[in-house]
Amino acid sequence: MAQKLDIKQAKKAIAALYKYNKNKAESDMLNNDEDNAIYVVIHTHKIMNKAENKLKQIKLPLSPFPADLEVCYLTKDDEKKIEEKVKNSPIKKVININSLKTIYKSYESKRKLAASYNLFVADDRVAPLIPSLLGKAFRNKSRIPVTMKHSGSLKNNIQNVINSTTVKLNNGLTSRILIGNFAMSEKNLLKNYEAAMPEIIEITAHEFDQVEMFGIQSENSPFLPIHTSLPKKEKTDDDKTAVKKEDEKASQKAVKDKTKKVTKRAVSTRSKK
Length: 273
Known about the structure:
The protein is α/β, with parallel strands linked by helices. The chain has ten helices and ten strands.
């Protein structure tokens, strides 16, 4: 798989992306965390999955999120009790499921909530209810909450989420997956790329032969390809007819050859008599 991931080309693409970002930042004075995000973009030859709201999680060597990450935690538990447990952690907001149903009922309130935090996490008891409660406001901002188990250490569980990325299954050809940000070194971004790609390919394409291309991209950069392949040639009706004729010819030839052998054997037997 390492050979197929083309690490040498990945290094070149990463270097080019960082150079592009540096030049653009100097001219545009970029300071938005979302602008600093770096993604793998993968395109398949054909649609391989059905759309799902559930996210597939991939563990990374280093967190792809910025150091000043702010997390909103959606839970069934009492908000004040959880807030006490998560002091000095990236969780900056705790929302009970009942509060979500009442306080954040309007589209505008949901839209503002979606724009207020980098990452949303839902405990596994309320996660099935979240997509219908948050709706389009969150889908449009790509803020679908990551499901997290509620049992065990809350701080450890949230840290596991922060050290991971997610893949959303869609019914399209292209997927975009967060693997880092420009605060990371190029070397560390490459580590995340190497760790994530085998699972990204498995989830989105199922097998490498179904991958048409993949590369890296930021919010403001062009797509930088790492791997491309030619589309698979689909067999046309003419191709199928040609194959059928070849099979028929081969079959007829086999019958003729067998007939010749039988005739020759019969003649040989009569001659001996």
